Amino acid sequence: MTLDLQEVIADWNAEPGEISARLIVGRDGGELLQMFPEGRPDGKRHHGLPTVLDYVEHEARLGRVQVAEEDARELQRELYQMNYRRLASSSLVEDCLMHKDVDNARRHVERALRDIDGCLRRIDVIERCGRSGGVVLRPTLTFHRGRLRVQRAILDDRYEDAIDEALRGRCALEEVLEEMGYEEEQRRSDPGVVFLHALAQRLRREYGIDLTLTERLNAAVAEEDYALAAELREELKRRAATRPKARPENETNP
Q1: C-alpha distances in angstroms, 170 versus 11, 28, 38, 150, 206?
Q2: Among residues 52, 37, 53, 49, which one has the least CA distance to residue 121?
């Protein structure tokens, strides 16, 4: 029997030099995304556990805080795999939005965000091991996490939350850059910081929002108007209760 993939890839015009991905759903409903869409991208297990990170954290709980060199190298490889899948999921988000497929766009946003969180957790461990590989990804991942959280809020028609996410993402990125030794002027002129700030302002103009509920709460606290602050906190709680719940990171392959 000959396996011919031409019918699958014939109409896929991938641009050279660009990150591109395609999600294929089989007859059994299973998904193929050039790699496993959940858990460890290559589907392998590490010492019987779903991921290298799971193994390292398991060893730490047993009191073995020193990470073996072999495990550190494999964790770094796992980080790069997960980062590539994050790029692939982000590409699929744009493709879905272009075709006005909001439900799948939201699903791929959640996948990309889970992978970003997974990458950042791995970078933390790699740093503790004294290795530099992957650490340079932290600013990029922090920026894209902010941008994707904005996108998720917009997909859910939560425009005030989108502005808050843009501002939180900008602050988080500035903090990362400060930890890396960037001077204040360098931080303010960083393209990611500039983009997230401009995005928040654009959203204000598009949706007619001068101040978000969070900003009004912060202003009330600064002015010591505690009665108003209490009202605004209750409103924030009510809003939070109606938000869609994101699925937590699940690193076990189905």
Answers
A1: 39, 42, 28, 11, 19
A2: 53
Angle at 147 (CA atoms; ends 182, 99), nearest 5 degrees: 150
Structure tokens at 196: 């997230």
User: Going by C-beta distance under 8 Å and a sequence separation of 6 or more, which residues neighbour residue 138?
Assistant: 120, 123, 176, 180
Tens-digit pLDDT profile for residues 11-20: 656 555 455 5
What is the C-alpha to C-alpha distance for residues 216 and 129, in angstroms, rounded to an integer?
Answer: 43
Distance (Å, whole) CA 115 – CA 121: 10
Q: Which residues of 31-69 are buried (b: 16+ CB within 10 A; e: fewer)?
A: eebeebbbbbbeeeebeebbbbbbbbeebeeeeeeebee
Residue 36 Cα distances to 24, 50, 57, 89, 90, angstroms: 12, 12, 22, 12, 15
Rounded to 10°, the helix 226-242/213-222 angle is 160
Backbone angles phi, psi at 146, to 5 degrees: -60, -45
What is the token pair recorded at 101?
A: 């497929």
pLDDT tens readout for residues 93-124: 999 999 999 999 999 999 999 999 999 999 99
**Strands in the chain per DSSP E:** 24-25, 31-32
Burial 74-111 (b: 16+ CB within 10 A, else e): bbbebbebbbbbbebbbbbbebbbeeeeeeebbbbbbb
